[in-house]
Amino acid sequence: MNPYLPQLAQIINLTEEAPNVRLFSLKYKKRKILNFSHGQFIMAGAPGVGEAAFDICSDAQNKDYFEICVRHAGNVTNKLFDLKKGDFLTVRGPFGTGFPDLFTLPADNLLIMAGGIGFIPFRSVFKEISRADFKFKILVLYGNRNQTNLLFKDEYPDWQKKVEMKIILDNPEVGWRGPKGLITDLLAGINLTGRTTAFLCGPPIMYKFVLAELAKKNILPDDIYLSLERRIHCGVGVCQHCAIGQFYVCQDGPVFRWQDIKEIEGVI
User: Fold this and answer.
1) Does domain 7-95 fall into CATH 3.30.565.60?
2) Quick one: which of 106, 198, 201, 268 could link to 111 by a disulfide (CB 3.0–4.6 Å)?
């Protein structure tokens, strides 16, 4: 199946994850399955409106349907939020380079750090971790604004059987008993022994400070992977809006090894 040709996908379920954030469960009308790797994205939209890039966040082994999580933020998402269960949208992809295969990581620790909606692409990672046994320790640090904006809350108990998960909020609502502050506050307080691989996804300002903290902990740029998915526009390397140095984020990324891009001016 040519990933550049749009395919119709039907909405089989909708879940409100947070204010203006909705989980779309989709099933192709003709195509049977969507094979993807963690961190890859699809282009989804509607005729006459356009399309936008969305991270795939479903279980990679689920062959019946796939899922994207959409924040209501512009013309394309305005249209998507008007759609109801049973309606169709157009899908192209999957595209891009994702995070490394978990089974190939040469690490004693896997550190996953997400800020805000940067948590979305890691949902598929956690679903794989829930099924398999890995030799390395898995630590998840998740920062968000408040309790209401936390994503996939109902799934935490299952994930926490295999991962250690720490959440920090910068503007918590009444009743929050966890830490208050920024994700770097969580990172500064942890000790990691042995080799650590780090997966990052969040706003650029988060990367600036997280990368500095990871360097203090002697985590090598070769072992740090970050998603630049917020830079994607057309998704197929035509518009060139996502260009960084010699790379196109939509084709060479959105996930990059920090070692490969750290010298590019303005990358974060």
Assistant:
1) no
2) 198
What pTM does this model have? 0.96
Nearest-angstrom CA–CA distance, 94 and 100:
16
Task: Assign domain 102-261 to its CATH architecture.
Answer: 3-Layer(aba) Sandwich (3.40)
Q: Which residues does 168 contact at the CB level (< 8 Å), separation at least 6?
A: 141, 142, 143, 178, 179, 180, 181, 182, 183, 185, 186
Tokens coding 1: 């199946």
Rounded Cα distance, 151 and 233, in Å: 24
Each residue's pLDDT tens digit in the chain (268 positions)? Answer: 688 889 999 999 999 999 999 999 999 998 778 899 999 999 999 888 999 999 999 999 988 899 999 999 999 999 999 999 999 999 999 999 999 999 999 989 999 999 999 999 999 999 999 999 999 999 999 999 999 999 999 999 999 999 999 999 999 999 999 999 999 999 998 988 999 999 999 999 999 999 999 999 999 999 999 999 999 988 888 899 999 999 999 999 999 999 999 999 989 8
Both tokens assigned to 107: 């690490």
Indicate the domain borders of the chain.
7-95, 102-261
121 token code pair: 């692409």
